[in-house]
Amino acid sequence: MKQKEQKAWAEIELKAICQGPDEIAKIKQISPASLAYLGDAVYELYVRTYYLLPAQRLANYHDRVVKQVRAEAQAAHLKSLLDRLDDRELEIVRRGRNAANGGRRGLDRNIYQQATSLETLLGYLYINNPNRLRELLERLELDRT
Length: 145
What we know:
There is one protein chain. By secondary structure, the chain is an all-alpha fold. It has two domains: 1-10 and 47-69, no CATH class; 71-140, Ribonuclease III domain (Ribonuclease iii, N-terminal Endonuclease Domain, Chain A, Orthogonal Bundle). It contains eight helices and no strands. The longest helix is centred in the C-terminal third of the chain and has 20 residues, at 109-128. The model is unreliable at 6-18 (pLDDT under 50).
């Protein structure tokens, strides 16, 4: 793992919110759209933290982050992870794709579905398996330029 990525993760301490069997059952009832909502926040926080070093002007941070959180970049990241996912994770991705409705004007529906699938997976892993979430996020090839 790259030193900068390690520093980025040092700033993010992910903790599962499951405390017992009752909460685990409740979490299994969370909709894919809600998982995507959470996953979007997790992904953006990771990307923002990733770009903090070396120190830069805020405008530079913003430009780099926006480039990575676009649906097209998320779709590409999902594609790069697919061969590393287990059957349960692939099922979450499928559920996220099926839950994707709407999207931005001018954005290819398939791209939007893939981006939502990635967000759903990240939301699911944030709650259920933070270590696996970290492992997958560290595999993303974020642009350093």
